[in-house]
Every structure is written in structure tokens, then in C-alpha cells.
């Protein structure tokens, strides 16, 4: 009877992990809609830890299925020992990550909502009002003139304050009417600024690393990924093509 409850307990864990994966996926979407910083280390670490624990619990589930159907034996005792050691190792790694990155427990602001949860799922282009068109034009001019994207830690809340628009309205404008995540919206301007610098003969001595920091990125890998996404080539190849 006890084995049955252990088996049921592990089955409930599978439901928990499925829910966890869905929440992480939602958090990633919210992150892209509200933050311009491309460093999503925390979500990636959480995703990896969840996968690891899911794999371990799935093995435990299989073990209890074997015990429940065939009974226990010496082999099962060895499996239990290995399970315990694996869980101890994973928990130690989790604590190491938490100590090394204390902000791991803060993550994405829980009060933020996905744009899909706050506005209609789609808005036909024909229904875009003159007011929305004016807001989009104002936003584009503000971005080009004031260059807020140069701030590497820029959030949608920061930008909303600068243009004196409610955060929800700005999020709707960018994500729904302009059909872009805030993450991509900001990085487009950063990449255009980087291309401008790369074309400028007076700044030819700047390294790629200096340029990426200058335009608001925090890491070379993120800059290279975004640059290739928007231009189809790498920063170095783009610079060489200008020679």
C-alpha cells in the first residue's frame, strides 16, 4: 500500500514539473516584452535546473513502477542509493547557483503580465486608429532623437516614464500594434547605431567589444546574435565588407 502512495506522489510531481515548464515559458515571454537586456541567464539556469530535477523524478517514477509491479530486490536498493546521491548533487549545484547569483531568487517581476493576458489576441491593421499611428510615429522619433536604448538596463517602465505614457499602453503599442517584443524593438535601434558606428571612418579604431558596450549591449555573444538576426551577418564581417 505504501508503494502505491509513493508512486502516486511521483505522478503528482510530473504534473508539478509540467506546470513549471509552462510558467518558465510564460516568464520568458514576459521578459522579452518588458526588458531590453539580452542577458537571460536566470531563466536559462532555472530551466536547466527544472529539467534536471524532472529527469531525476522521472527515473524515480520508473523505479516505483518497477517496485509496484515486480517487487523490490537488491538491485532496487542500489538504484535508491544512486537516486539519493544524484539528488544531493543536484541540490548542491542549485545552492551553488543561488549563492553565486543571489538575484536568482528575484527573477522576473511577478507583477508583470504578458501582453496576451491584458489585450485582445490580435488587432487587424485596418482598425489602427489615427491616434495609434501618431503614437507610433512619436515613439520612433523619440527613439531616434533621444537614444534611450543606449542604456543597457533599459526597461519598458523606464521608457514609459520618459515618454510619459502608461506602461500598459506602451506595451500594447509595441507588442500588438508594432508586432514586436520590447526586447527586439530596442535591439533594432542598438544594431542600427552599431552599423552607424561601423560605417564611421572616424571611429574605425573602436573594437567590436567597445562598440557593443557603447550601443547598450552587455555581452559579445548577445550582440553577435542580435546583429546577425537583424543583418544576416556578423559585426566583423559587416565591418570587413565596408573596406
From TrEMBL:
The chain crosses the membrane at residues 6-24, 45-66, 78-100. InterPro entries: Homeodomain-like_sf, HTH_AraC, HTH_AraC-typ_CS, Tscrpt_reg_AraC-type_HTH. SUPFAM superfamilies: Homeodomain-like (SSF46689). Residues 224-243 are annotated as: Disordered. It comes from the Bacteria. Keywords: DNA-binding, Membrane, Transcription, Transcription regulation, Transmembrane, Transmembrane helix. Residues 140-241 form the HTH araC/xylS-type domain. PROSITE patterns: HTH_ARAC_FAMILY_1, HTH_ARAC_FAMILY_2. This is Helix-turn-helix domain-containing protein. It comes from Pedobacter agri.
Amino acid at each position: 500500500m505504501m508503494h502505491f502512495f509513493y508512486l502516486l506522489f511521483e505522478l503528482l510531481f510530473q504534473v508539478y514539473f509540467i506546470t513549471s515548464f509552462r510558467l518558465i515559458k510564460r516568464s520568458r515571454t514576459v521578459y522579452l516584452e518588458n526588458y531590453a537586456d539580452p542577458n537571460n541567464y536566470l531563466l536559462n539556469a532555472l530551466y536547466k535546473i527544472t529539467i534536471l530535477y524532472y529527469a531525476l523524478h522521472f527515473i524515480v517514477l520508473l523505479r516505483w513502477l518497477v517496485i509496484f509491479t515486480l517487487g523490490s530486490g537488491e538491485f532496487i536498493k542500489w538504484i535508491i542509493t544512486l537516486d539519493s546521491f544524484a539528488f544531493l548533487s543536484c541540490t548542491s549545484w542549485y545552492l551553488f547557483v543561488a549563492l553565486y547569483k543571489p538575484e536568482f531568487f528575484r527573477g522576473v517581476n511577478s507583477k508583470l503580465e504578458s501582453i496576451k493576458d491584458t489585450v485582445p489576441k490580435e488587432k487587424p491593421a485596418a482598425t489602427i486608429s489615427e491616434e495609434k499611428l501618431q503614437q507610433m510615429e512619436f515613439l520612433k522619433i523619440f527613439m531616434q532623437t533621444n537614444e534611450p536604448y543606449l542604456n543597457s538596463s533599459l526597461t519598458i517602465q523606464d521608457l514609459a516614464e520618459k515618454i510619459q505614457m502608461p506602461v500598459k499602453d506602451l506595451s500594447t503599442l509595441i507588442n500588438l500594434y508594432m508586432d514586436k517584443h520590447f526586447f527586439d524593438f530596442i535591439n533594432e535601434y542598438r544594431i542600427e547605431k552599431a552599423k552607424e558606428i561601423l560605417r564611421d571612418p572616424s571611429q574605425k579604431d573602436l573594437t567590436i567589444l567597445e562598440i557593443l558596450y557603447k550601443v547598450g549591449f552587455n555581452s559579445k555573444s548577445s550582440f553577435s546574435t542580435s546583429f546577425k538576426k537583424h543583418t544576416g551577418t556578423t559585426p566583423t564581417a559587416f565591418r570587413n565588407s565596408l573596406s
